[in-house]
Amino acid sequence: MFHDTVTTLPITDPTWIFFLVLLIILFAPMILERLRIPHIIGMILAGVAIGEYGFNILERDSSFELFGEVGLYYIMFLAGLEMDMEDFKKNKSKGIIFGILSFIIRFGIGMWSCMKLLNFGLTTSIIMGCMYASHTLISYPIISRYGLSKLRSVNITIGGTIIVDTLALIGLAIISGMYKGDTSGMFWVMMGIKVTLLTAFIIFVFPIIARVFFRNYSDNIMQFVFVLSMVFLGAGLMQFVGMEGILGAFLTGIVLNRLIPHVSPLMNRLEFVGNAIFIPYFLIGVGMMIDVNALFTGGSTLKVAVIMTIVAIGSKWIGAFVTQKLFGMKKNERNMVFGLSSASAAATLAAVLVGHQIVMENGERLINDDVLNGTIVMILFSCIISSLATERSARKFALEEKLQFNDTKEGEDELPEQILIPVANPETTENLMNLALMIRDRKLGRPLVALSVVTDNKNIQERKQQGEKNLEKAAMIAASADVKVTPVSRYDLSVACGIIHSAEEYNATNLVIGLHWKANIIDSFFGKLTEGVLKGTCKEVMIARYLVPSTTIRKIHVAVPPQAEYETGFVKWIDHLSRMASQLGCGICFYAESGTLNYLKEVASKYSAAGLASYTVMEFWNDFYTIQENMQDSHLAVVVCARKGSISYDNSFERLPSLLSKYLHGNNLIVLYPEQIRPEEVHISISDPLGHNEA
């Protein structure tokens, strides 16, 4: 029996089906990369070859339906999850206009072609017009691979997708309802109410559930399973009210967008599993549905397929061209809009299958077999054209971005960014690493440096083993976000000296350390270690204390002292906090005196969180009572400080520890010391292990 399951075609044994699918997923990219063909096309063509209408190697069993459904939801979910919400807000109106305009153009051309060129009836032409109007973001994984999800053209297309597909599916529901007898006005009123209530439920309730879960459960597997559960809950509820599940999956991606930072272990796992298994399975399953033989067996299938393909691709190019002229886009932006929106798969399949199942009064199907086969062929060619166009456009954007990045870096004398994270406490390691991941410059692609310092004492072997465990944990956290870590373990006279010397040896530009917890009532607020590090280096230092997971922060409050704009590291720390706010998708409010606030606005407007920033004038910058009034458990307070002798240093800093203890003792806190120019007479010495030597 085992022998028969392998030698008899099609193979039906689930073990061998899964094995062969994995081989296709593994080798298709290898082969196609040499031919410079997008991977997506290879998956679809492989599906054609192994399917019923190809060499009939595999049977399209329930696994393809299951994984295909998951893959389809995954594409829509990732599209919503990876969107830059600030750019989306800026381009929201353009996305809506693009969606409505595209629907009208495609629907109109589609109906006209069906009635004039294919001689179909009005009802059939309407359902096919809805089919032409819709599109699937099947080439979106290409955008993810090139890291171009923040492009204006991408956000406009994604925003338009939900409008187009919603209108197309509503049209499909109307036609389907007519043949089911559900055409009463009350039916459509109830459907509208249910969709509205469900949308409100997903938008307002899903984030609350997710925020509570992420705060209480940090296990990686549990978080991943939880997110998948939310995706399918959203999709299932949308199906329950009579719409397609892809809309629920997309909406879930949007509402979870702010809770899953783009550079985080969870995001990396979600993208990895989707792109490795679910999405390829969906693409292979689409290919297995394509009956190429039907094109050459006579009848009108070939004519229908050719007309449908030309009309579908042509109408979508016209929609992209009109959008380009309307919004003043460049040629490559138009090509990106066309590439992303030209593929037809999800809603198109839904429309044609629903129409094929409807039998009219004369006994004929609303959509016949010729149209069904023609639709599958159209899906194949639209996916190929979409992948090629998106790949070509993405390469041009990536090249332009690289050239711009090189131009901005050319001639800069300062050291490239290098973040050093001393890890000593396993309980704070995850939050410190996540903080470093959020502020790092992804374009540079430099590894983080995790440091463990062992001092000469009686428990040296035990401390060494604990340090190695901390470094291993730090490396695992960074690896989950696809970021390399350089682990460093060293012996030194003191931990402070070890940090200072390592910072010099590895040319660290930023240090991220944990805030000291007072051991007794006479202990200092920052502790001798932190004080020693601050006196021994003039690099930017972030001293962090998180009471909730760093990835669940919902707002950042930044207190800035007078004359902070004159410090060397002023622009750098604004850039870092902007990256953090952008990754978290949260607001950032700056508190400062009016003069400093004007400089803040000017600099912050140039960085990624410009749309998230707000500004509050404070007569006294250290009025932490005002900040405390605006703080919540999920908020983060950032206090920008200054070392003694720096331009922005003031005598009020002497009272800073007591003020922080009084007003922000129960809040998430970062005390930030900007980079300074090191005076020539200051030298690092190991004569004082704690670095207390005064310049």
At a glance:
The protein has about 700 residues and is an alpha/beta fold. The chain has helices at about 1-5, 15-35, 40-50, 60-80, 85-90, 90-115, 120-135, 140-145, 150-180, 185-215, 220-240, 245-255, 265-290, 300-325, 330-340, 345-355, 370-410, 425-440, 460-480, 495-505, 525-535, 570-585, 595-605, 625-630, 655-665; strands at about 420, 450-455, 485-490, 510-515, 540-545, 555-560, 585-590, 615, 635-640, 670-675.
Overall CATH class of the largest domain = Mainly Alpha
CATH topology of the largest domain, which one? Na+/H+ antiporter like fold
Q: Which parts are unreliable, with pLDDT below 50 for 5 consecutive residues or more?
A: 408-413, 519-523, 680-695
Based on CA atoms alone, the radius of gyration comes out at 29 Å
The secondary structure category is: alpha/beta
Give me the count of strands.
Answer: 10
What's the architecture of the largest domain in CATH terms? Up-down Bundle
Summed up, the helix count is: 25
Number of domains: 3
Biggest sheet strand order reads 3-2-1-4-5-10-9-6-7-8
CA-based shape: elongated
The share of residues in helices is 55-70%
Biggest pleated sheet: 10 strands, mixed
- How much of the residues is beta strand, in percent? 5-15%
Arithmetic mean pLDDT? 80
Q: Give the N-terminus to C-terminus distance in angstroms.
A: 84 Å
